[in-house]
Write a structure and sequence with these properties.
heterodimer, A: 476 residues, Rossmann fold, 23 helices, 11% strand, B: 238 residues, four-stranded parallel beta sheet, globular, binds iron/sulfur cluster
């Protein structure tokens, strides 16, 4: 699965994450500052909850009428002379794009940031076909230079690296000789990239929102790189997840507002690029040829099912930026290019439970993600739904847990059993109890007591106290 | 006013002091307490782990237990959140959905009940000490009770309050998460304890016994001189 990153298992990945103090410092710092910025940017609107509801409605409406809008979009792109290809699988998408590259005899491709092309492993495919691929988003560029280090965040892909590490990567790979000052690093990347834009044969972008009514595509960036990717090369390819569209510009405006405020705490990003098909006669720039690749890759299976709301996602990463689990383990621990709460919901759906069965459990169901999601995806409920599917349909839960839960069902449903169990608990736990606590618990309790003390069961349960008091009158 | 107490299994077995304080406090505020013996657990441990069928058994038993209650009050935001979820769990079930709805509507977390139903903001408590307060996730985010505990604590005489930095962050309990994902849980609770320490408080107060068991257990393991109390105990002290 192309979404997958690394070969370590879940536990190893989490261990690596926890031990990476650089990464954790960078992530915690970013979460803290982005959290404040997001909060300010949303409060500033005064009626954020209404905006969220509106965003949710728009996304739900699109999903309910997805076939209609996809058709409208395709027609409008074709009307303007663009080519549309609907790829059911990652392979089909890659083959099509490879075909365009071959036909154009292209040697170099420049790319603006796109998660869906990561999802289908487009870069690797094109490189294998002998084409040079250059990422132009600064974060993606850093990762690419660093031997294709995978992204750890859907908006800030190189979040796990600090400026000193970036300086070292540039020094080693690009002969960079200056300091770790962000301006100097960025300037260097700019100089390197400028040449690439001018010599590229094809520009490839993702898509924040496609506008069905006009056949347009919007790209939201802070670096302006998408402008260059879409205006300099002669051929342009836009790759989009099949759900990423809106009916008209009016809805796009609402979603862009929600996106920029939620993602980076900005009213608007520095650049919002909108392009509509290939260059027309009166245009001064723009590509001569335009291709739209719409990627399904498992999305239509989600549509219409109990996880449909995950397709409302506008990839703002607000859920990632508040997630306390992500905070400590970082993006690579998820083993998927989609990390954090959205990744934990989406990765098992697109990549299967075999690969991602731990992710739905990597959450305390604290609900912080659901609280901030600008399109109101009930993320923690979807994580819970995954657990239910794993237990009931996939049969992937551990046997010991199944037995324990069966016992729970019996005990909790039967007051008699519970009363008996809780009454004998102090005696049962006696061998492990020192004073009023248990420091070395047996069985599953061990995982608890490895970290913290566990209280010894009360000798007099609350219910015993209550009963005695009733007997002895209220003045106990 | 007649109040039916849902003590929760954790309080019943491990933190009876919080249950006792709840009874005494509510009585002092003029309530008549009833404690049905047949109550067990809200079903959350099984439900949150994905064992909905098993959880439903517990839930049905709870619905029946509290069927005649006028108000159900509990010293746990999380378990009341679970009660309020019942209608969703039994959605489409002609027998249990309506019953679940009734229970959800009359169930309240302790501080929520005192402030919103009893309309009392000062319970006449006195507690001398420097405290900080942990806002549990389920109680604040899912149940939406943010202000009530703050209002009540602000009126406790002698109490010196310091806000907990990063208070909206989960303590890392998460039910079975605490043992299933122990590695991660440890990092989360450590950050929480660090913040508690930063406040210089002598007491950490919370309204959910489970979170307190988690944070308190870690504080104890690290030998830190911070005491952990349920909010009912603070509001009941004079
Ligand atoms: S799930 Fe919601 S918060 Fe998370 S990235 Fe998607 S839109 Fe943003």
């Amino acid at each position: 699965m192309a979404m997958k990153i690394g070969t370590d298992n879940f536990k190893e990945r989490v261990g690596n994450g926890i031990n990476d103090s650089f990464m954790r410092g960078a992530v915690a710092g970013a979460q803290n500052s982005m959290g404040v910025r997001r909060q300010n940017a949303t409060e500033e609107l005064g009626n954020w909850e209404e905006w969220r509801s509106h965003g949710e409605e728009i996304r739900q409406h699109v999903l309910e009428n997805l076939d209609y809008y996809l058709e409208q979009l395709s027609e409008n792109v074709a009307k303007r002379g663009g080519h549309v290809f609907f790829a059911q699988t990652a392979d089909q998408a890659n083959e099509y794009i490879k075909g365009v590259v071959a036909k154009k005899n292209a040697k170099k491709v420049v790319k603006a940031k796109s998660m869906v092309t990561e999802e289908i492993s487009l870069n690797a495919t094109l490189e294998q076909a002998g084409c040079t691929v250059v990422e132009t988003d600064l974060g993606e560029y850093i990762l690419q230079v660093d031997d294709h280090d995978p992204p750890s965040h859907i908006v800030v892909p190189a979040l796990h690296k600090n400026k000193e590490q970036i300086r070292d990567v540039f020094a080693k790979k690009l002969g960079y000789q200056k300091t770790e000052k962000p301006e100097e690093l960025a300037w260097h990347a700019r100089e390197m990239l400028r040449q690439e834009y001018l010599t590229a044969d094809i520009g490839i972008t993702g898509c924040n929102f496609a506008v069905a009514e006009t056949g347009s595509f919007s790209l939201v960036t802070n670096e302006g790189n998408a402008d260059l990717v879409t205006s300099l090369p002669k051929t342009q390819i836009t790759v989009m997840g099949m759900e990423r569209l809106v009916p008209t510009f009016e809805e796009m405006e609402v979603l862009v507002s929600l996106l920029t405020r939620s993602a980076v705490g900005q009213k608007l990003t520095s650049y919002i690029t909108v392009l509509t098909g290939p260059r027309e006669e009166h245009d001064v720039d723009g590509p001569e040829e335009f291709h739209l690749v719409i990627v399904d890759n498992g999305r239509s299976k989600i549509l219409g099912g109990e996880f449909q709301s995950v397709l409302q996602c506008i990839r703002c990463a607000a859920c990632i930026n508040v997630c306390p689990v992500y905070r400590h383990v970082g993006g690579h621990s998820y083993g998927s290019i989609y990390s954090g709460p959205i990744g934990a919901v989406l990765s098992p759906l697109l990549g299967g439970y075999d690969e991602y069965k731990e992710l739905p459990y990597a959450s305390t169901l604290c609900g912080a993600c659901t609280d901030v999601c600008p399109v109101k995806i009930p993320l923690h409920q979807l994580l819970h739904k995954h657990r239910q599917v794993i237990v009931e349909q996939e049969g992937k839960a551990p046997i010991s847990e199944k037995l324990a839960m069966k016992a729970f069902g019996l005990g909790a449903a039967s007051p008699m059993l519970y009363k008996l169990g809780s009454k004998v608990a102090p005696a049962a736990m006696n061998p492990f109890t020192v004073g009023d606590k248990i420091s070395k618990g047996p069985g599953p309790l061990k995982a608890w007591t490895d970290i913290r003390e566990f209280p010894a069961p009360n000798k007099e349960r609350f219910r015993d106290w209550y009963k005695n008091r009733e007997k002895g009158g209220k003045e106990s | 006013m007649k109040v039916t107490l849902f003590a929760t299994c954790i309080v019943d077995m491990f933190q009876s002091s919080a249950g006792i304080a709840t009874v005494e406090l509510l009585e002092r505020l003029g309530c008549e307490i009833e404690f049905p013996e047949s109550q067990v657990c809200c079903g959350q441990p099984a439900y949150n782990s994905g064992y909905v069928k098993e959880a439903k058994e517990a839930m049905k038993s709870m619905i029946d237990t509290f069927i005649d209650a006028e108000y159900v009050v509990s010293p746990s935001g999380s378990c009341i959140t679970m009660f309020r979820e019942y209608p969703h769990v039994f959605k489409g079930d002609p027998v249990w959905e309506p019953k679940a709805k009734k229970l959800a509507e009359k169930s309240f977390e302790l501080t929520q009940f005192i402030v919103d139903v009893l309309k009392i903001e000062d319970v006449g408590a006195r507690f001398d000490g420097k405290v900080t307060y942990h806002t549990s996730c389920h109680m604040t985010r899912l149940l939406g009770v943010k202000k009530a505990p703050m209002i009540l604590l602000s009126n406790v005489k002698g109490l010196e309050f310091t806000e907990l930095p990063g208070k909206e962050q989960c303590c890392g309990f998460g039910g079975t998460f605490s043992v299933k994902m122990a590695q991660i849980s440890e990092q989360m609770v450590d950050e929480k304890v660090m913040h508690v320490e930063e406040t210089g408080a002598e007491y950490l107060i919370g309204a959910d016994a489970a979170c307190l068991m988690n944070i308190g257990g870690r504080i104890e393991r690290q030998g830190k001189p911070i005491k952990v109390l349920h909010i009912a105990e603070v509001l009941n002290s004079r």
